[in-house]
Design goal:
The complex is a heterodimer. Helix content of chain A is about 65%, strand content about 0%. The N and C termini of chain A lie close together (about 10 Å). Chain A has a single domain, classed as Serine Threonine Protein Phosphatase 5, Tetratricopeptide repeat, CATH 1.25.40. Chain A is globular, with a radius of gyration of 16 Å. Chain A is built from nine helices and no strands. In chain A, helix 6 packs antiparallel against helix 7. By secondary structure, chain B is an alpha/beta fold. Chain B folds into two domains: about 180 residues, 3-Layer(aba) Sandwich (Rossmann fold), CATH 3.40.50.10440; about 130 residues, Hypothetical Protein Tm841, Chain: A,domain 3, CATH 3.30.1180. In chain B, about 30% of the residues lie in helices and about 25% in strands. Chain B contains eight helices and twelve strands. In chain B, helix 3 links the parallel strand 5 and strand 6. In chain B, helix 2 crosses helix 3, helix 4 packs antiparallel against helix 5 and helix 6 crosses helix 7. The model of chain B has no long low-confidence stretch (mean pLDDT about 95). Classes of the chains: A mainly alpha, B alpha/beta. Chains A and B meet through helix 5 of A and helix 3 of B.
């Protein structure tokens, strides 16, 4: 089972990974985007750290909702609103008093997160967006076999699939955002959003495994 | 790329400053590339908010003013603005009677629009949304969610703005705008692509003797690539596609717009308009409202969009009602 404290550590680990790789993300984004993804991700990661540090007795659901709303307001392209939706989305399927995450709860969180994202975008795997990492991550989380308490394994499976998905985005031509106007020229460069999403999931998995 | 520009990163900011300097009595610039109706403070009615990327001038920001759009949130070139700015614009625009939020159906605009609506709902804001999606070339009417929003947003702003000025409730303004949008259709034709003014990328390539019916406003392919035809032949193909799509019957009245894409001359647009009206007359369809010229352009793309909408007395009254914007005055 993952409790509130552990979940806070998971988010902090994600923030740390995103901060450590901010320059890499901006570098990827500079090829066909406006080169500021690392800057925006830095703002989001700091927001995550601040919220975790100030987490008092709010439920995981309320905490994610607050953090998602705050991230939504981060300026700098669509990353803030998308991350806000993704982070807030992790909480939508949680009950008000669900503060112990089992493997099944973790699966439900991830499925709810994907549904929230699919509510706002038609992007699919292969369109060179965050969805290239998120969709396989959620699918792997649903498929992995675990013991009832093994939420760590759910996040570990999600992280691995997200990384594979981010790598696979190299082979896709951009269909969304500013990079779209470069079309096939974007093949060979991964999607910056898919890479940052894989870092987010890797952090969750590492934080969960550290207990 | 031969364009009179400065730093490509400053295109949007500079064009908006120019627009504001040219129209100081009509509009002003707000935070986050908002273009705001100068008389918004006095508005005691439903207000109209929209959003969209720059690079399509005069759309969309050139239609901010009394009787049309109250706030347009402008994104970067061909890029939607973020949802936070749109939520802020909706709050700023709300004068207690609610806000109609009009969004064109493009991936980025819809992403922002969906997130904006989620936030508005969460914050309890009184907002209704109408999506314009009228490109007949890339999906059937049954699959309207896949239809792109083309020039049809502009007359939709006009209809909505006039209904708001008449004092309609948010429900009524949204309903009449939706009714108009449900009965409109656009078809585009391109003969030469444009270049992206920031990146210099050619948005579409066409042979010297080719035209493409159905090209979207960022050079998206529409599938109708064919040898170049005369104005009369092209107009007839397009008129018939639009009449068929909307299901206009003999005896009905329509609005007809020929919208230049940026590099097609007004001479050509007028010749096409003439042919379209004649083709409609043959089918006993009367043009009761029109516009010929540039409303929504794609840089130096050559070609035009032909727009048609079913009209009735109410829609005609709203179309003819007064408005004062930089690029449409009635």
């Amino acid at each position: 089972m993952i409790d509130r404290e552990t979940f806070g550590r998971m988010l902090s680990a994600s923030a740390r990974l995103m901060l450590d790789n901010a320059d890499v993300l901006s570098d990827i984004d500079s090829k066909f985007g406006d080169g500021d993804h690392g800057v925006t991700i830095t703002k989001i990661a700091k927001l995550v750290q601040d919220h975790v540090a100030a987490w008092n007795d709010a439920s995981i659901k309320d905490f994610l909702d607050d953090l998602g709303t705050a991230a939504m307001a981060v300026r700098g392209g669509s990353a803030g609103p998308l991350y806000g939706t993704m982070i807030g989305g992790l909480g939508v399927e949680l009950g008000d008093d669900e503060n112990e995450l089992s493997a099944d709860t973790a699966r439900r969180m991830l499925a709810g997160c994907l549904a929230e994202m699919q509510d706002i975008t038609n992007a699919r795997v292969g369109d060179k967006t965050m969805m290239d990492a998120l969709v396989p991550a959620v699918a792997a989380a649903q498929a992995v076999e675990t013991s009832p308490g093994g939420a760590e394994a759910v996040f570990a499976a999600a992280a691995e699939a997200a990384e594979n998905g981010a790598r696979a985005s190299e082979g896709f031509a951009s269909k969304f955002g500013r990079a779209r106007s470069y079309g096939d020229a974007t093949i060979g460069t991964p999607d910056a959003g898919a890479v940052s999403t894989s870092l987010f999931f890797r952090g969750l998995a590492e934080g969960a495994a550290q207990r | 790329m031969k364009k009179f520009i400065n730093d490509p990163e400053n295109l949007t900011a500079e064009l908006l400053e120019g627009l504001a300097m040219a129209n100081p009595d009509i509009l002003e610039l707000g935070e986050d590339n908002m273009v705001v109706n100068k008389k918004l403070a006095e508005a005691d009615r439903v207000t109209i908010v929209t959003q969209g990327g720059a690079g399509h001038e005069p759309a969309i920001e050139g239609f901010v003013g009394e009787g049309m759009v109250d706030i347009d949130v402008v994104g970067d070139i061909f890029a939607a603005p973020g949802p936070q700015a749109c939520v802020d614009a909706i709050k700023l625009a709300d004068k207690g009677k609610g806000v109609l939020y009009i969004v064109l159906n493009h991936a980025g605009d819809m992403l922002t629009g969906n997130m904006t609506m989620k936030q508005c709902k969460k914050q309890g804001l009184n907002v209704a949304r109408v999506v314009t999606q009228e490109d007949v070339s890339n999906a059937t009417r049954e699959n309207a969610d896949d239809r792109r929003g083309l020039v049809g947003c502009i007359p939709t702003y006009k209809i909505a703005g006039a209904a708001a000025a008449e004092g309609g409730s948010l429900e009524e303004v949204a309903a009449v705008a939706q009714r108009f949008a449900d009965n409109m259709a656009t078809l585009a034709v391109a003969v030469r692509g444009a270049t992206h003014p920031q990146t210099g990328t050619l948005l579409a390539e066409l042979g010297d003797d080719e035209m493409e019916i159905g090209m979207g406003q960022h050079g998206e392919e529409g599938g109708g690539r064919q040898p170049m035809k005369s104005a009369d032949e092209t107009a007839a193909i397009m008129v018939n596609a639009l009449v068929r799509d909307i299901g206009i019957e003999p005896g009905e009245k329509v609005m007809l717009i020929v919208n230049g894409s940026g590099a097609t001359t007004l001479m050509e647009q007028l010749i096409v308009y003439r042919a379209a009206v004649k083709e409609l007359a043959k089918q006993d369809i009367e043009v009761v409202a029109n516009f010929v010229g540039e409303m929504l352009t794609v840089q130096e793309q050559a070609g035009f969009q032909m727009f048609m909408a079913r009209m009735d007395d109410e829609l005609l009254r709203l179309w003819n009602a007064p408005c004062n914007t930089p690029y449409l005055k009635k």
